[in-house]
Amino acid sequence: MDKDNKPLDSLESSESLESEDPVVETGSNVAPTAGQTTPVPTPPSNQKFDFQAFIRSLIGRINVYLLLFIFIVILSGIVFIVAIQTSKNQVKRDQSATQKLSEEALKSLQGSDTKVGDPKQLLSIESNAVFTGKVLIRDSLEVAGAIKVGGTLTLPGISVSGTSLFDQVQLNNLSVSGNATVQGQLTVQRGLSVAANGSFAGTLSAPVITTDKLVLNQDLQLNQHIDAGGPTPTISVGSATGVGGTASINGSDTAGTVTINNGGGATTGIVATVTFALRFKSIPHIIITPVCPTGCNFTPYIINRSVNEFTLAISGSNPGGSFSLSFIAIE
């Protein structure tokens, strides 16, 4: 019986060995199993370091959204720092350009002539200011808002680049270099002088028009009479009026009437010579019409005509007494 129990003891002893925790050496990749001896770790072989594989492995482990978040945080920090630095620089410039006035400085302004600061500094007045006396600005004046003037504004010169709106402007002399457009009615109290041509699209109304030359491209329509003004020409009596005969004239170079008073022995022929007050540019066309109280038994005619004068004569029989000859001279 003892001999039979020995193998069981040995078997139990072997099972007891399996129940024990195996011992694993550090650095070993394989855990020893029951009934095996612990393997001896072999030293690693000398292998090359793969840098590309390391980078790929590193990229694979990095989260892209995390990198984007970090980039946004860094960019926001840079913008914040730049804004703070710019604000500090602006504050420094404002502090260097402006200066607060103390009570002593304000009291010193009550004097007749007081200087505050220098041209490099800026005087800033936050409240409203009222000047009882005059204000003299030796340099230019820049106004950011609107200007309201309650009284008269006197300016030696004004230059306006944009559009201006005036309710009423009174000027002694106005010179416009460019074009001028008047939307309303233009009233000129005195004379209007135009050096170049003038063009009117509507009706031109004037009680009197004086011109050196009038050119009409259309028909002339007159609703009233034609008054041929101008100086009166001179006249000399002809020999056909007889002894003691006289001649007179009234009118102008354009139209007039010659009156003949016959003397003794009046006959036919030259009765008068009319000399124009103003010389015509060319020989005028002259029309003669006899005027007789009891009828005319003679025929008037012109012997010669020029730019300076024309001569009147009659044919047939001299009626004696007085008669008239009206004429029209048109160039």
Per DSSP, the total helix count is 4
What structural class do you assign from the helix and strand content?
alpha+beta
SSE succession: HHHHEEEEEEEE
Strand order of the largest sheet: 1-4-7-6
List segments where confidence is low: pLDDT < 50 over at least 5 consecutive residues: 1-31
Beta-strand fraction estimate = 15-25%
CATH architecture of the domain at 234-330: Sandwich
Q: What order do the helices and strands come in, and which of them pair?
A:
Layout: H1 2-19, H2 51-61, H3 64-97, H4 103-108, E1 234-237, E2 246-251, E3 255-261, E4 269-275, E5 285-291, E6 298-305, E7 309-316, E8 322-330
Antiparallel strand pairs: 1-4, 2-3, 3-8, 4-7, 5-8, 6-7
List keywords for this structure.
17% strand, alpha+beta, 4-stranded antiparallel sheet, elongated, Immunoglobulin-like
How would you explain this protein's 3D organization?
With 331 residues, this protein is α+β, with helices and mostly antiparallel strands. It is 21% helix and 17% strand. It contains 4 helices and 8 strands. It has a 4-stranded antiparallel beta sheet with strand order 1-4-7-6, with no helix packed on it. Strand 6 and strand 7 form a beta hairpin. The longest helix is centred in the first third of the chain and has 34 residues, at 64-97.
Short structural summary:
This protein is of the alpha+beta class and 331 residues long. The chain contains four helices and eight strands. It is elongated.
